[in-house]
From TrEMBL:
Assigned keywords, A-Z: Hydrolase, Membrane, Protease, Transmembrane, Transmembrane helix
Record's bilayer topology term: Multi-pass membrane protein
Record-linked InterPro entries: Peptidase_S54_rhomboid_dom, Rhomboid-like_sf, Rhomboid_protease_S54
Protein name per its UniProtKB record: Rhomboid family intramembrane serine protease
UniProt-listed Pfam families: Rhomboid
Keyword Lipid biosynthesis included in the entry's annotation: no
Domain Peptidase S54 rhomboid, chain residue ranges per copy: 36-171
Residues annotated as transmembrane: 45-68, 75-93, 99-120, 127-145, 151-170
Chief subcellular location: membrane
Amino acid sequence: MLMLAWVALLWLLEVVDVATGHSLDPYGVSPRDTDELADVIPAAFLHFGWDHVAANSVPLLVLGFLAAVRGIGRFLAVSLTIIVVSGVGVWLTAPEHSITAGASGLVFGLFGYLLVRGFVDRDALDITVGITVVLLYGSILWGVLPTSSGVSWQGHLFGLIGGVLAAFWFRRTPVGRSPRRARLTS
């Protein structure tokens, strides 16, 4: 239900944006202007047209659902991490005089999170999910390369990085095991 509501919100925001003459578009991220840092989070919910929101909807539903299965609190923390890392990465590296918005940074981040989570948590089921995600969506990795004009490869790349970081930051300790401790010799 969470992911259906999330995607419905993206569509609702696009309806509002179109109905108001694209008044929400300026809430995308403009690079290296400190006032624009406040737009890092809203930018992940805004899109530049119907095709844009449609392209992000299905992968966000699927990857978001798979990421949320392990717990809503963890999922929300992972999503916030991805959104912030992606948005700040865009803010630091996007071309001057550009505006970046869209959920694709989150999509790439969830992809990276799901890909790495099983290995970090040492969970066979999550490793299987990661392999399945690669088989279904692996071709999106081309999106981290600067191959298409008008597409924020920066948002994709930093989203992916944010997802990998989130897999480590929000890893869970396997049941019955204490966290690994470094072994030091003298």
